[in-house]
Each structure stands twice: as C-alpha cells, then as structure tokens.
Amino acid sequence: MKRYDTASIRDAFDVLSERANESLGMFDEGSIGMGRYVAGSSPWERHNNGDELLLVTDGEVQMGMSKNPQEDLKKAYKMG
C-alpha cells in the first residue's frame, strides 16, 4: 500500500485560491482523494452508482442531500 503525506498535500492546497483535488488511489469501485474547496465553488453532484465519504480536516463544509431537488436537507459539518 502506498503511503501519502497528507500534511504536505494540505500545505500545497493552502497556497491556492481555487478548488483543487488530489487523487490518492482506488478502493473497490470507488476512488480516494483529498480536496480543497472554496466557499460557493462546488456545484451540486449526483452519485448514481455509489456513495461519497467526506472527512473535513480544516474549516467547515455545508452539505445538502436530496432525492428530489425541491426537498433539500442541508447540514454543516466541522473538522474532525
């Protein structure tokens, strides 16, 4: 298994002013990666063939989930 220095990846993201992603590998049929998101920069995503796991390592993210776009459930998540 390849090891990644996630602290270095986060440091590289810190100097950016826009969204960024770093692929870390695959697991079963899913991918593993790290991302940096800027407020208001992530459009809605649809995952028809699987789930997404998010781990917030810095700041806060607001995530919305919906089966129907008119029924939006939003919740804020903080690091950890």
Report what the structure shows.
The chain has 80 residues and is mainly beta. The protein has one domain (6-78). It is built from one helix and four strands; from the N terminus they run H-E-E-E-E. It has one helix at residues 6-14; strands at residues 20-27, 30-36, 60-65, 73-78. Strand 1 and strand 2 form a beta hairpin.
What is the topology, as strand order, of the major beta sheet? 1-2
State the end-to-end CA separation: 24 Å
Structure class: mainly beta
Radius of gyration, in angstroms, nearest whole number:
14 Å
Strand content: 25-35%
Specify the number of helices: 1
Taking pLDDT < 50 over at least 5 consecutive residues as the criterion, the unreliable ranges are: none
Number of strands: 4
Topology at a glance:
Elements lengths: L5 H9 L5 E8 L2 E7 L23 E6 L7 E6 L2
Antiparallel strand pairs: 1-2, 3-4
